[in-house]
Amino acid sequence: MQRLRAIFAAALSVTLATGPLLGAPTATALGTVITAEHAHVGDASASVGTTVYGGDRLSTEQQGNVQIRAGAARLLLLSASSAMVNDNAGAPSANLLSGTATFSTGNAHAFTLYASTAAIRAQSDAPTVGQVTYLNAKELLVSSKHGPLAVTVDGETQTIEDGKAYHVYLDPDTAAQGPSGAGGKGGSPLKAGRSRFLIVVASITAIATFIAVSEALESPSRP
Fewer CB within 10 Å, N side or C side of the chain? Predict the structure, then answer.
């Protein structure tokens, strides 16, 4: 009987020791770093081949950049930028916290970029390249190099046409004050349905800058 009790006690101790490990949630691998310079994943330096997990924070220093491949999408952070990557209903996503991010997708559900209260994604299943600059919590610069983009705020969606750049005002009252940066004067506000947000044509300078960035992202020399 004492021997039987000893066996039960040993089995119980093993169960208690391994139980937390077996029951603990495991981080999901979201993508892989394919280019990196003066960049970080969390507190660690980013390098080519580094695995990125849901919940990781990507950041770049001045003159830095980092690009990840995640399924049918790529995400490039430019200098002095940061974003939190995650899994959104089985598809990669990122929340842009500062700076500028360029993304490319193979279909409309491949990737979503969040910035403040806006969600930006490809409007169709055709290959799409877009760029978002976080100016402040109420203003973004959203540009398309290839394919239209859908910008959604509180259930309302507006379209960024192929090859166009727009200031997106998440508070319509701020539109009258004009752009706060990243491209000089803009055009007139476009009608935005229930006026949950406004989009205003951005300057040609912002478009030219975006084209240069997205061409680098799509270059065949990139892994």
Answer: N
